[in-house]
Amino acid sequence: MILLDNSEQLLALFESLARSIPESLKVYGSVYHINHGNPFNMEVLVDSWPEYQMVIIRPQKQEMTDDMDSYTNVYRIFSKEPQKSQELLKNCEIINWKQRLQIQGLQESLGEGIRAAAFSNSVKVEHSTAVLLATEDILKLNASNKSKFGSWAETGHPDDDFEREIPNFKYAQLDVSYSGLVNDNWKLGKNERSLRYVKRCIGALPAACMLGPEGAPVAWLTMDPSCEVGMAYSVEKYRKTGKMAQVIVRYKKYLLQKNIPFYVSVLEENERSRSSAKAAGFFEASCEWHQWTCYPQNLVPF
Fold it and tell me: How far is the CA of 127 from the CAs of 30, 264, 289, 293, 300, in angstroms?
């Protein structure tokens, strides 16, 4: 595959991916961050250029030093012909099948090729799925192809937007000092590797919270390297009080104002979260969110 490291090529790819939203949204969001500082040191591979059929986003080699760190060892994939992805995915120079890793995408049809490639490398695969939700502005990008997004680094943290207060509560930028709190309450976290990942996300990407009367966050949201909004949590004392909804609405408003792409995924059975997201202006996309967690037989999940 071809490594795209030219800024003009990456911008052209970004514009092209807009035409395939929502299926390309996870790769599209990753390329956005790569084009704006690349805080997670990711790289872009395509099967050919300028005409391409497959795009793979992966961390640069120096990032993937821990064979068990599936928070870092993440590959995000979009393919125009997902049924033909198997041969490319088998290649150990493209995917390091000796590591525990995650493959993420928004095309269920990628699964057959991923499972076949994993089997040929003696790797076990666990598949999970969720509902994909995005705003109307994002979903319309495939029609308008107007992918003009600013930079989080250029715009700075949203201090002005965050100053509006509710009595005894304050909307604020989520500080990296609260990484432990976020990690301890993240269903997929609660370990040292996840803590390093959480710190990195909060430190480099937009993250928001509602500070309570005690001065600590009572509800919060973060963003990942593919522009997916997640790790959402409300402390038990303040659930069903509307605090999370207030954070979502203000965070969404900020991202829209700064033209930062974003979307969310929610487990299908989580009706409350799906309803909350729709109430905040999100729409269910025509495709689903998919993740394939892969690990060699000699590496058991932690």
Answer: 21, 18, 11, 6, 16
pLDDT of residue 165: 55
Q: What is the pLDDT of residues 239-267, one digit of tens each?
A: 888 888 889 989 999 998 888 999 999 99
Question: ∠ CA(290), CA(291), CA(294), 5° rounding?
Answer: 150
Q: How do beta strands 263-266 and 228-234 pair?
A: parallel
pTM metric for this prediction: 0.91
Q: Which pLDDT does position 155 carry in this prediction?
A: 43
Q: Which of 208, 22, 55 is nearest to 132 (CA)?
A: 22
For the purposes of burial, counting CB atoms within 10 Å of the CB of 267, is it exposed (0-12), middle (13-18) or buried (19 or more)? middle
With residues binned 3-state (H G I as helix, E B as strand, rest as coil), the percentages for the chain, rounded to 5, are 35, 25, 35
- 63 exposed, middle or buried (CB, 10 Å; 0-12, 13-18, 19+)? middle
More confident residue, 132 or 149: 132
